[in-house]
Amino acid sequence: MKKLSLFASFVSISGLISSPAIAAGFSTIYGFGDSLTDTGNVNQAVLEATAGTQTFPPSPPYFEGRFSNGPVWIELVAQQLQVPFVNFSFGGATTGFNNTLDVTLPGIPLPGLQQQINDFAVNNPVADPNALYAIWIGGNDYLPTNSMTFTPFDNPDQTLSNIETAINSLVGIGAENIIVFNLPNIGDVPLVNQSVDGICPSDNQFDGDCLNDLTVAHNDGLASLLADFSSDIDLIPVDINTLFNNIINNPSSPFTNVTDGCFDSTVPSVCSNPDEFFFWDNVHPTTRGHQLIADAALESLGIPEPKTTIGLLTIGLIGIVKKMSNKVSEK
């Protein structure tokens, strides 16, 4: 595979107040996953392949290579912990070697999870035992795709095996702290949440109810997988499924819409109130949603929830989002 340039991100630590828990924290955060964690790697690959003439996802309305309208959870966590992060995550990644953006971005080699781990190991044959390694992936293994090289799975066996391989690879080179996210109910994302017929098994593999049943099987298997690892390794599960369920089934402030995406790419248009939407597009959360994901990760790590919103809706970012919304709405 052609060597990909790595988008390494380092967050500002100025203006943050340290606490004993944070001061005794990790040296670095390494991220592995898909578009829910990608902070610009796909965009960087597209910029390089097109000599800087194209971006993906398009900016505006997407924010600086993120698949959202602002910062995503990993950079918010890194900011709270006051540590740098290095992100190997790529939008479109499956848990194997495939990437579902192969048709959307033809000719640009984009990795799956296994290649991300391999790329990390090449440059880090001995992993930093004081670093935190984050894995959040699996949705692209099940959701509908126009990929020419990957067919979505209808059971979690291969996906869980791939995640286990990735964890074992990190542990094998010395990683000791690994945070692993389960999946939200993928049948509830706007892409498929209108395809519910209430019958499973269904003639439609991507029926929302069937995808939610598949999510349950995935999460149950992932919990068992993590429980079987050696107690010498600090494997930290993050229950994103419960977080999403609580938001979607019991919508409350600040979210007034938990079923639709703020950005409709078919028009295209951006809603006037993105802070009130949980979903930014038909799959990905808004940056306000990512803040809650970051809070859940921090809670799983035993870090007290920040008293103030961190790096989420500064005056400057609000201005950027409004400008993006206006530009797209005017098209």
What does this structure look like?
By secondary structure, this protein is of the alpha/beta class. The protein has a single domain (8-330), classed as SGNH hydrolase (Rossmann fold), CATH 3.40.50.1110. Helix content is 34%, strand content 11%. It has ten helices and ten strands. The protein has helices spanning 20-23, 41-49, 73-81, 113-123, 139-142, 157-172, 208-227, 240-249, 287-300, 315-330, and strands at 8-9, 29-33, 85-87, 132-136, 177-181, 234-238, 257-261, 263-264, 269-270, 277-279. The strands form three sheets. The chain has a six-stranded mixed β-sheet with strand order 1-3-2-4-5-6, sandwiched between helices. A two-stranded parallel ribbon has the order 7-10. A two-stranded antiparallel sheet has the order 8-9. Strand 5 (177-181), helix 7 (208-227) and strand 6 form a beta-alpha-beta unit. The longest helix is centred in the middle third of the chain and has 20 residues, at 208-227. It is globular, with a radius of gyration of 19 Å.
Radius of gyration: 19 Å
The CATH class is Alpha Beta
Counting structural domains, the number is: 1
Measure the end-to-end span.
Answer: 38 Å
Helix content: 25-40%
Backbone shape: globular
CATH homologous superfamily descriptor: SGNH hydrolase
* Number of strand elements: 10
Average of pLDDT? 86
Largest sheet: 6 strands, mixed
Could you name the ranges where pLDDT drops below 50 across 5 or more consecutive residues?
1-24, 307-331
How does CATH name the architecture? 3-Layer(aba) Sandwich
CATH topology: Rossmann fold
Structural class by secondary-structure content:
alpha/beta
Q: Bin the strand percentage.
A: 5-15%
Q: What is the H/E string?
A: EHEHHEHEHHEHEHEEEEHH
> What's the number of helices?
10
